[in-house]
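new request in #modeling-help
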Amino acid sequence: MAVVDASLPIRAVGLSKSFRATLAVDRIDLTVGPGEVFGFLGPNGAGKSTTIRLLLGLLRPTAGQVLIFGTDAADAVAAHRRLAYVPADVALWPSLTGAECLQLLANLGPGIDRSYRNELLQRFDLDVDKRCGTYSTGNRQKVALVAAFATQADLLVLDEPASGLDPLMEQEFRRCIAAAVSRGQTVFLSSHHLAEVESVCDRVGILRAGRLVEVAGLDDLRRLRRTEVTVAFGPSAVVPAEELARTAGVSAVRRTSASNLSLTLTGSPAATLRVLAAADVVALDVREPSLEEIFLDYYGSAA
Amino acid sequence: MTTSADVAGAHGHGEPGRAGRADWAALTRLALRLVGPGIVIVIVLAAGLSAVVVIQYGYNFADPTQAASLAVLAQSPAIRVLFGAPIALDTAGGFTVWRTGMFAAIAAATWALLTATRITRGEEQAGRWAVLLAGRIRLQELVGHHLMILLGTQIALGVALGAAMIAAGATARGAVLHAGCLMTVGVFFASVGVLCAQLMSDRRTATGLAAGLLIAGLLARMVADGVEQLAWLAWLTPFGLMAEVEPYGAGRVAPLMVLAGYAMLAGALAVVSARHRDVGTGVFDRAGTRPSRMALLGSIGGFAVRRTVAAFAGWAGGLCAYFFLIGLLARSLTAFLTANPRFAEMAAQAGFAGLTTPQGYLASLFALLALPLGLFATTRLAVEAADEVEGRLSLVFSRPVTRRRWAAVQLAVLAGACIGLALLAGTAAWSGATIVGARLSLWEALAGTVNVTPIALLSLAAAMLALGWAPRAVVPVGAIPAVGGFLLTVLGELFNWPRWVGSLSPFAHLAPVPSTHPDWTGAAGLLAVSLVLATAGLFAYTRRDLRS
């Protein structure tokens, strides 16, 4: 049994879900603290949406437990009073207009900030008098986003929320996340769009084949990984390739041309810098790998 | 279901730019899979039932004097209106046509139009046709192809039915004509379904329009049989044309040809109208933009009412028209049966007892009301299941709304709607009866229709049970109490099945109100069973995974 802490937006303990023989989610332990923006990364089919549906009580866990603000996720009334959700694939009633859907969703919860909703409608440029049946994927997503942000709920659970939005609207979406964070709202954001997570999240969990393989702060995650260093030497310089290869923390030393060399660096760069200081270095390029590269590292070529 | 193999097959070999044989073969496999086991059930039911009636006729109506006297039944316009013209009842085939023909035709027509809109507009609306049409197949060709598949299913139905009747001992010519009638009625309504699917941009509206035409066809047939001046109406409705054929009487081929002509016309219109629209739209597309109406969006109950109103109005319209007509006939039928007690006895044997007073006559017909009411409740709960499977409830249940409350409110609204429909149908029957001067009070009529609502509620509860365990089985399971129970009662009385078999039907536990007092114990029993089923369904629905 998980320890009940009503201040914790999300607490999952040993969460598992099987569909007949398939184990979709495998013993996930996860805590998301108040005010945190948590990125939930994983390739298609890793179990992101299944995990989210477990968090919402839409699916019943095979084992383990989910607490939303200290309440069991199965207790929809208590758990969802402070929560808003945007599904990955938004389905709305085709005969209702956007405004009617928003009205219904608003009335099913504890209420919304109407002036903020109107502002959101303007910002997302949504024609709410169109029947939902005629909306594109992106427009349906906008309806769900407006409905969720307008609640100003303490916890926003967003399942690939920007996947159908154009770049302009994606920017608008990031602004909304920033506004939510400044208000102290907690955000749980699932994505396989790395730039999105990189730009808004404090902490990231990586899901692979139903297992949470890593949870780290964005900085931790980067530091855990290598730094790519490219060095250009002067035309007459002696390239210290062998010495570098023996240096602690250095790996994958490659001569890319007669006077160029690349290496991968982990941990402290001090020893490497000492070696390079002795050589005639004309240019040094140090690059932090993108989250995408970190991500690919987890999944290797199978990603 | 569209599988990658089927889609890949759509790009098979052939002339570049035109669909080749491999494309059509793949499409045919796909369409047949969609038509699925439904057609097999329809064929087995229609052919099996007809064969059983042919065989049983030998046991029950072997006495020729008894059989000959049946022919006089044709003199009563009311009998014709209700059960179709009784022609050649002295033959096994003639009796079978009279007893099962209309039922089988309605069943085949309903199946055909539901399937037609499902495999065309339903698939298109779900976006799967866009995938198929990205290949070399054109929309018009795809529509035509699906029409052919539906035609094939009806031919299979016709062949099976004709063969079953002949094998059971009915005369071949009549059996072939009768099978031809049923087949053509099926083809007609399949074509109408495909046509409506071209006109309307969503499946439910298309199905509603096609179902409206079916009901109009039935009412037109009843009017044509009942009002001599309007007899020509029979030539405008498939059900009337079918009766004109008289497979075991005159054996006319001309009406069958006219019916086939209508079917071809509807099919041709469907294919032509497919040319005048874009994929994903209908010829009469609803405006994409309309002023938002915020009424009844404030609560779960309000929304449940809002979603039920249009369907309620449609069903109410059909039921009121039917029962108004029934009311209008109250006097002529009861007068005829009082004068000819022999026929009252015959009708009793066919499952309609006590037809000699307006109360008895209406009590028999009010029992029929349980079928549409049960189907209304079941199909409306199926909408709930569709909302879930298509993912619309994910957003709802992410709000502070419990599934138990949501489903319980839907059940309450649908139960209320069933009672509302019963009250409207009763009022319509009373209005008709009052116009012709039959002695029937409004109270009696309302008591009669409300009396059958426990069966509708039982259907609703069975549908809820299915929703709790297997949302895709809502319609078949929900139909069991009303449709299955009705069949069991009618067949049990016709063939003198043991009493305990008949008592399995909920209809056995209803008193014929208003001709007698309500069977309070029976009604309470039905309601208790409904309550247990609905509670079990709610319990399962609350605890299972939400589908999407």
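bot summary: Chain B has two domains: 38-281, 295-548.
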